[in-house]
Design goal:
It is a single chain. This protein has 416 residues and is of the alpha/beta class. It folds into two domains: 142 residues, Leucine Dehydrogenase, chain A, domain 1 (Rossmann fold, 3-Layer(aba) Sandwich), CATH 3.40.50; 156 residues, Rossmann fold. It is built from 14 helices and 13 strands. The longest helix has 26 residues. Bound molecules: glutamic acid. Glutamic acid binds next to helix 12.
Length: 416
């Protein structure tokens, strides 16, 4: 496995695109670096009365095209390097989708599964209060990510609102639908993955109705991706997994039933209607489409040769290392990169933010139609760039995104 840090790997992807497009070295240097990095250490009163100190981060990578945008994750392994990489990817993700946002990301180093609901709420509120000095509907707009959800967003929104003295719905996205949230936000990342899976099957000449799909990770992204790929594309979802392990059934799963099982049992790994497999085995299954929708570095130089899928659609952020990318590209696997494949979430976050600012809410059909249209447009722009530069999809997506952010940087000029 690679010894490089996640941020170094992300910069490597950027450098590849920058050199292919002949980006000026000084602009490249501006675009590589995060604009602001905030580290907060904050105390939380635990249920038994003792105080624990947690570490949190918020990184604003770039705001040349608009306010910073990106989720907040709670994970025991979260660290500054990871949050920097994730913020970096958000800059290119919002630019690929042509949204008027920059890129940001946050995280708290904590295992939320070990907290009571009260502890989770106090941690969330105190963390948000600590990072509030750089947050706001026009500065930086957080959203859900790994282990955070609409309930956490409601606490964030309320905390910010209490501190400023009025209700500011537009300060976070991914809120509950009846509290300034957007219809279709919860399914949005999975829906975007579905659109990319469908389009990439077209590119590779695969009939979706005959295709088999494996999904690694069964959180928000994996669940909706599996559901919509099976329901709307008619493909067979033959394997799914979560952090505890996976299940495989060559006949295909009833994904709705799987989701209900996950909700009740907390894992899909014990689902009885399939054969138990490990996460590693899932990645190496002989399927048409593989959707890594868990965490970073799932596909690395140690297993990339063994991936049998013809298409990889990155539901997670950073699931493929640069070394693995090279191997997959050489072997003719079509990799739809994270900054395109999972951009459905931030796209509906954009719709949510617009609805909040206008205090005028859209119906579900409008949102789904607008999302699918924007995903298709971005996919086709990335394919055009791919053909123009004779490169892979990831590098093409970077070129498209870097071009937009570089334009904004040059046009705005360097202050003062
Ligand atoms: N956390 C999601 C992502 O990685 C969504 C970000 C957002 O909606 O702002 O894209």
């Amino acid at each position: 496995m690679s010894k490089k840090s996640l941020y170094e790997m992300a910069v490597e992807q950027f450098n590849r695109a920058a050199s292919l497009m002949d980006l000026e070295p000084d602009i490249a240097e501006v675009l590589r670096r995060p604009k602001r990095v905030l580290i907060v250490e904050f105390p939380v009163r635990m249920d038994d009365g003792h105080i624990e100190v947690f570490t949190g981060y918020r990184v604003q990578h770039n705001i040349a095209r608009g306010p910073a945008k990106g989720g907040i994750r709670y994970h025991p392994d979260t660290n500054l390097d990871e949050v920097k990489a994730l913020a970096f990817w958000m800059t290119w993700k919002t630019a690929v989708m042509n949204l008027p946002f920059g890129g940001g990301k946050g995280g708290v180093r904590v295992d939320p599964k070990k907290l009571s609901r009260g502890e989770l709420e106090r941690l969330s509120r105190r963390y948000f209060s600590e990072i509030q000095i750089i947050i706001g509907p026009h500065n930086d707009i957080p959203a859900p990510d790994v282990n955070t959800n609409a309930d956490v967003m409601a606490w964030y929104m309320d905390t910010y609102s209490m501190n400023v003295g009025y209700t500011a719905l537009g300060v976070v996205t991914g809120k509950p639908v009846d509290l300034g949230g957007s219809k279709g936000r919860e399914e949005a990342t999975g829906r975007g993955v579905k659109v990319c899976a469908g389009l990439s099957m077209d590119v590779m000449g695969i009939d979706p109705k005959k295709a088999t799909v494996a999904v690694q990770g069964f959180g928000n992204v994996g669940q909706y991706a599996a559901l919509l790929i099976s329901q709307e594309l008619g493909s067979k979802v033959v394997a799914v997994s979560d952090s505890k392990g996976g299940v495989y059934n060559p006949e295909g799963f009833d994904v709705e039933e799987l989701i209900r099982y996950k909700l009740e049992e907390g894992t899909v790994s014990t689902y009885p209607k399939g054969e138990k497999i490990s996460n590693e085995e899932l990645l190496e299954l002989d399927v048409d489409v593989l959707v890594p929708a868990a965490l970073e570095n799932a596909i690395h130089e140690g297993n990339a040769e063994k991936i049998k899928a013809k298409i990889v659609v990155e539901g997670a952020n950073g699931p493929t290392t640069p070394e693995a990318d090279e191997i997959l590209n050489r072997r003719g696997v079509l990799v739809v990169p994270d900054i395109l494949a999972n951009a459905g979430g931030v796209t509906v976050s954009y719709f949510e933010w617009v609805q909040d600012l206008q205090e005028f809410f859209w119906d579900l059909d409008q949102i789904r139609t607008a999302l699918e249209k924007m995903m298709k447009e971005a996919f086709s722009e990335v394919m055009k760039t791919k053909n123009k530069y004779s490169t892979d999809m990831r590098t093409a997506a970077y070129i498209l995104a870097i071009d937009r952010v570089a334009y904004a940087t040059r046009k705005r000029g360097i202050y003062p």
